[in-house]
Amino acid sequence: MTSSLPSLNALRAFDSTARTLSMTAAAQQLHVTHGAVSRQIRQLEEQLGVVLFERAGRGVRLTTAGIRLANTTQQVFSQLEQTCDQLRREAEGAPFVLGCSGSFLARWFIPRLDQLKRDCPELELHLTASDEDQPLRPGVDAALRFATPPWPTNSQVIELAPERIGPVLRPDLLSDADPATPTTLLQLPLLETLSRPQAWPQWCHQQNLEPASLRIAQSFEHLNYMLEAALVGLGVAIAPAYLVEEDLRAGRLIAPWGFIETDALLSLWLPQTAQDPRARQLAEWLRHMLNQ
């Protein structure tokens, strides 16, 4: 049976040119001559019966047909690269690399590493800090993220547990005579993190309070900084319950107003083509630990 697909070299030449909008830049990426890229694209246009590029100054721009094809080639070549990288890493016996926010890494995961090693001794895990709103970096097998559905179609998302947030403070900021009511809370200095500005308004909404009544005393760039400020008594922080479990257990912080569920979920994110069985093993362990 004759394949109707053009040659892989021609599609690669097209994809590189579509990404750079320059045949010269594409040729440099592919380590071939400008003429070789030009011939591959011309042959591809002849085989498909459409024009894929138009001249634009010193470069080129995609036609409507070119945009359609570029959307597909970028997705397919990205998936090929991810799958080949995964296969190469598995063959080399590389550890499973998990990315998560620095605050979750320090406050939840590291205190439980010994438990993970006891429960899953065959799982060699490497942890790395990563931003929750960034795509998976090359070499990172999966990432833990707090996010709200619907999920993107270019990722596998394994839901683990709902996000629960609540106000926490040092015990000596609240006297025995102070009732644990929302009104009492709003009389105290409040701390927020710029990475989650919606947290306090979400809490107010569930308490039937106007967000305008909030008195934010200090904002912090990172959640970890905000929690450190709460631990030294600068005010009341609002944080995911998972990140303050150890502080609550040790009595360093209290949560007299409890926690509320948000629409977000803590989930394990993987590339769309990922088939590493270690991801499912890790997800099951995480789900068990998070829901204890």
UniProtKB/TrEMBL annotation:
Taxonomic source organism: Marinobacterium sediminicola
Domain HTH lysR-type: 6-63
Family stated for the protein in its record: Belongs to the LysR transcriptional regulatory family.
Top-level division of the source organism's lineage: Bacteria
PROSITE patterns membership: HTH_LYSR (PS50931)
Record GO terms (molecular function): DNA binding
TM regions (residue ranges): none
Keyword set, alphabetical order: DNA-binding, Transcription, Transcription regulation
Cited Gene3D superfamilies: Periplasmic binding protein-like II, Winged helix-like DNA-binding domain superfamily/Winged helix DNA-binding domain
Name of the protein described by the UniProt record: DNA-binding transcriptional regulator, LysR family
One Pfam assignment: LysR_substrate
